[in-house]
Each structure stands twice: as C-alpha cells, then as structure tokens.
Amino acid sequence: MLKKPDAFIKESNMNESVNRRHFLSKGVRLCAAAGAVGMSGTEALAQTVEGSVRRPGRFDENVIITERKPFTWPGEKTLAVWFIPNVEVFILSPSGGAQGDVDVLNYSWREYGMRVGLWRLADVMDEADIKATVALNAGVCDVWPKAIEEMDKRGWEMMGHNLTNSRSLRNLPLDQEHAIIDGTLKIIEQATGKKVRGWLGTGLGETFSTLDNLAEAGVVYTGDWNNDDVPYRMKVKSGEMYALNYGNAVNDISFWGKGHTGDEYYQMLVSQFDTLYEDSKKLPRVMGIPLHPFHTGQPSRIKYFQKAVQYMKQQDKVWFARGSEILDAYKKSQG
Q1: Strand 133-136 and strand 285-291: pairing?
Q2: Can you give the three-state secondary structure of the chain, one letter per residue?
Q3: Does residue 52 fall inside a structural domain?
Q4: Residues 277, 79: contact at Cβ < 8 Å?
Q5: 169 and 41 together in one domain
Q6: Separation of alpha carbons 104 and 117, rounded Å
Q7: Are residues 40 and 76 in the same domain?
Q8: How many Å apart are CA 58 and CA 63, to the nearest integer?
Q9: 133-136 and 79-87: which strand pairing?
Q10: Does residue 198 sit in the same domain as residue 246?
Q11: Do residue 259 and residue 308 come from a single domain?
Q12: Residue 108 domain-assigned?
C-alpha cells in the first residue's frame, strides 16, 4: 500500500534526523579519539564522509578576494565584461515517443538560434561596438560555414566547445577525451585560420584529466570554473591554464527555463553588473554574460538584452573585451 505524501515526508524527516544525529555522534567520538593520536578535529570529521572529501587540487585554496594584488584593466578601466554566445549544433534524435518520432520541437527551437536568433544578438553587439567570444561547437564549421564567416568578419573570438552539444566530456575514457579536444581545436582552427586559446565544456563538463589535456593541446583559459571574480592560474601538468568566469550565475539558458520575464532578465543582468562595478572600485573584476541564441535571440526577449547592454555602455570604467584580451591583460598586470 502506498504511503500518503505527508506520511512519507514525516518518515523521511525522521530518518534524516536520525542519520544526522548518528553522523554528529560519530564525529564527536572521532574528534575525541583524534586528539590522542595528534590528528586535528577537521581531519577526523572529514573521515566520517564516505570516501573522504576530494578537493580539485587545481588552484590555491586559501586565497580570498581581499588579498589579491592590485591592478587595473587597460585604459584605467575597472570592470571587464565579456559576452559568450553559445553557437551550437545538435544531433537530431528520437523524441522518445512510442513510434520513435523525431524530436522536431526541441531540434527546430535550437535551429532557430542559428537561423535567426544569433543574428539578433549580433545586431545588438554591432550597435554597441562589442566583439563577442563564441563558445563554438566544431560541428558548426561544417553545418553552418556562413555563420563562421560572419562571426569571423566581426572579429569575434572562437573558443572550443566540443564537437557537438549532444555529448559532453563527462565520464569519457582518456583516449576519447583526447580525440574530442584535438578534433574540436583542429576543425575550428582550419575554418578560421586562428589558434584557439579558450575552452568551454558542453554543460561545463570535465573529467579529472580535462584541464591537463586542454593545456597540452595549447588552450590557455577555460570558462568552466566560475569560482572567482578575477582570473586566476590553475595547476596543470604542462603548459598553462587560467580560469575566467563565464558568468554562469546569469546564464540565460537556466533563467529562461524557469519561466522568468524579460524585465526580470534585464534586472538580473543589471544587478550583477552594478555589484561588480561597485566592487571593482576596490579591485578590478570580470563579468561574463552567457548567451544562447535560441533563448535570448527570440523576438520577445532581445529588447531586454539590448536594454541591459545600453545600460552597461553608459558606465565609463567598463572594458568590453574578448576572453583572450582579458587573459593577456591580466597576465601582464601580474608581472
């Protein structure tokens, strides 16, 4: 017999409470015993978690924002803003229906971004004299060569974003990850004639080897790690790698997916901008703005993006730049 929802919730809460008491009791006993063998309480508590706590080991952990070396962006600007249109191609797949019907709804919606939405975004950035940094699926070079030509003509930077958006790097064997990274970079470089310096994983997905593989392939920055307002150097086996905040906190794909309005999107971008702009008076910051053409490029939404860009352009200490420009300026400022 199925439990009623409220009975199930009550039972779940009771179980959670019991588990919490058990964990804390175990932790207290372990901390007491740890003192006898010279182990810290923190180390002891960490061992109460199954498999212990795994840290990335890719950056200095104990570095807070108030302890950074002062610097400025070019032209004495304090806030660097970069725009990241995700220009993607998807594999046409079944919808999961009883007859294995093609998923026309989602495929055509995303296709709209390439046929129409991207060019609305381009018009807004052209008007504002802003050059974007494109998170580019390499498959676009084959399917939409005209789009590559138009973006390149505008001076937009291309960074790698996997072969297609239908598969991420998560859980891939090492040899397959190597093949996808190398293939992505090679295709984009052949199409544009320019070295690819940046990377954004599909769904920001990585394995524990991704950063090493990217650095080995010559990539020098990634937007996958959104844990700081300032670029920082990451630890890799060879070469170099920097984290550059992609702005996932204001990602349009998650925002529009929750049913928010255009006014709310505008207010979110402006609120993020205002806080970072104020903070940048003490220490320069970076603001990333992710864009998905099939979302923000829709007729009902584009004006709110345009309004936000116009607002940002009114502030005199803002530097609108591409990813590589931000990285190069930061490295130069650090000596």
Answers
A1: unpaired
A2: CCCCHHHHHHHHHHHHHHHHHHHHHHHHHHHHHHHHHCCCHHHHHHCCCCCCCCCCCCCCCCCCHHHCCCCCEHHHECEEEEEEEEECCCCCCECCCCCCCECHHHHHHHHHHHHHHHHHHHHHHHHCCCCCEEEECCHHHHHCHHHHHHHHHCCCEEEECCCCCCCCCCCCCHHHHHHHHHHHHHHHHHHHCCCCCEECCHHHCCCCCHHHHHHHCCCCEECCCCCCCCCEEECCCCCCEEECCCCHHHCHHHHHCCCCCHHHHHHHHHHHHHHHHHHCCCCCEEEEEEECHHHHCCCCCHHHHHHHHHHHHCCCCEEECCHHHHHHHHHHHCC
A3: no
A4: yes
A5: no
A6: 18
A7: no
A8: 13
A9: parallel
A10: yes
A11: yes
A12: yes
Indicate whether 55 belongs to any domain.
no
Q: Phi and psi (nearest 5°) for 232?
A: -150, 155
For the chain, what is the domain count?
Answer: 2
Whole-number Å distance between alpha carbons of 169 and 182: 13
Domain membership flag for residue 300: yes
Mark whether 15 and 70 lie in a shared domain. no
Query: Would you write out the chain's pLDDT as a tens digit for each of its 335 residues?
Result: 433 333 323 333 444 343 434 433 444 443 444 444 354 444 444 444 445 555 667 767 667 888 888 999 999 999 999 999 999 998 887 655 544 577 888 888 899 999 999 999 999 999 999 999 999 999 999 999 999 999 999 999 999 999 999 888 888 888 899 999 999 999 999 999 999 999 999 888 888 889 999 999 999 999 999 999 999 999 999 999 999 999 999 999 888 878 889 999 999 999 999 999 999 999 999 999 999 999 999 999 999 999 999 999 999 999 999 999 999 999 999 98
**Can you read off the two tokens belonging to residue 327?**
């990285």
Q: Which two tokens stand for residue 1?
A: 């017999």
243 and 144 both lie in a single domain: yes
Q: Are 10 and 109 members of one domain? A: no
What is Dmax (Cα atoms) for the chain?
70
Boundaries of domain holding 13 = 5-46
Residues 26 and 135 in one domain: no
